[in-house]
Amino acid sequence: MVRLACTISIFLLHVTTSFAEDSKAYPAKQPNGWDFLKEDVTLYLVARNYDLYGDNKTDCLISKTVSKDNQSHKLSQELHFKNTSGSQWYKGIVNMTAYRDDHGVYNFMNTTTGARYNFLYTDGECGVVEVLYNNHIKSSPTTSSTNDTKRSNEGRLCAIWVTEGALSKAHDDCWHSFRCECDNKSIYPAFNRTECKNRADTETRN
């Protein structure tokens, strides 16, 4: 995606239950990335396990699907993001094409800039997206260590996206999917209500 290349500190405080306890309650369900990206619905990147440009500089990544074709499975997203070293907001358009996974569901997404994504979990309000390729991502996670570092998820880069109307919810199942299926030695909170408001006055088109 445009400069984003993907991408809650409050929510992280909520993630305190053990893996063993969570695994009993985690419902196995088939994700549907195409349905999750609803037209005119605003999504916020709330956490990720990778650094986009180094030093965790890019924050407040916001996305909205502005057009969607259910026949060709092509869509366009409007992105807003800022660099936390300053107050300037940026805006761009990303075009994507969705492809079926092994279950026949449109969970794989390719962008015209070469980035590739795969939806691992969706529930209508929260989604976990694996970053299969993005040339902006720098090195491996280095902050916010957790204890759930196990299994074959090592090195699997992911992000959590939440709909605007559900930002105040805990999304336990979504977080569980993230911790089980993605590398979680480190997690970068990517959303702050105060810092991510009032973007219009300082926004420029990228």
From TrEMBL:
Signal peptide: 1-20
GO biological process, one term: symbiont-mediated perturbation of host defenses
One Pfam family from the record: His_binding
Gene3D superfamilies in the record: 2.40.128.20
Keywords, comma-separated and alphabetical: Signal
InterPro entries from the UniProt entry: Calycin, Tick_his-bd
Name assigned to this protein: Putative salivary lipocalin
